[in-house]
Amino acid sequence: MRLRDTGFLLAFSTALLPWGARSLAQLGVPLDLAAWFPLAFIFGVVPFIDAVCGDERRNWETPAQAAQLESRHFFRVLTMLVLPLWLATLVWCTWQFTHLPLGVAGMLGWLLSTGVIGGTLAINPAHELIHKPGRLEPLLGGILLTSVGYQGFKVEHVRGHHVHVATPHDSSSARLGESVYAFVPRALWRNVRNAWRLEAQRLRGRGRSAWSWRNEMVAWYLLWLTLLAAFGLAFGPRGLLFFIAQGVIAAATLEVINYVEHYGLTRREISPGRYERVTHHHSWNAPQRYTNWLLFNLQRHSDHHAQARRRYQALLHHEDSPQLPAGYATMFVLALLPPLWRRVMDHRAIAAAR
Prior knowledge:
Layout: H1 2-6, H2 17-26, H3 31-34, H4 37-53, H5 63-71, H6 73-99, H7 104-130, H8 136-147, H9 153-164, H10 180-205, H11 216-262, E1 269-271, E2 274-275, H12 289-294, H13 301-306, H14 328-335, H15 338-352
Antiparallel strand pairs: 1-2
């Protein structure tokens, strides 16, 4: 258990990837090529490490063990420490982008690398934090999401996605046969729109204006504009554009993962507009040990949807959940190749629906 616990410290290693790129450049690798190192590691090396480290299928065995896991502050502190680490990484990456003599290929590589790291290091822990009770953890999660310009996720994910997952009403559940290139733009637009709509409904239900200062979306967008101005003042127009672009890429990275997590799975409609209860059968699961360390057990996504308040360290692996044939890094790349994706995934999704 101790090894499994401390393995989650590897989540912080993602922040080292930009430093690795700079180190390669200092060792003589062409700068424009070194800028792509984080992507090469995430999508090329991580699947290899997954194969070496194997799978993690063990679960807690008694409710007392689960309660003990849930109560340990070590796990909670890890996700909260991500906020200063990510903000420092983002500032450093922006400084490098505005000062290094990058060519077009290098700028693209550095921008994509920073955005994908944001989707991994910022949005993923934010996803854990926004589900938790109290004020502190959701607040930290909201700040993380705002740093990548996807603040609406805090509202829509909890009150929209988890309610409507695996139904036609969900913005983040991909339909069978739908390509990732059709899904991601639709998901990005609908998630932002739904977040504003959900907040407006909540306020109207309390007899307040949708534009009240109590509107959570207004507060998060004010924070985003403040961050935007800060990056513009500190790094100039190039830094301002970098801040916006890395956020778009981070949000798109998240939605590709949503595509992987829910592709083709549906809940049975039991009456018009009413669907069966969400269970661990309505999300794809993956047991790769290393990636689950990197992503705070995100690949145990089936149990997360069945028990959304359960902390990441106590999530269960369900053998009878729909199982992905590989970890998220591999499936991310596969999703970008629709004919190959459908060949691998369609028959699995159809079988899971039976």
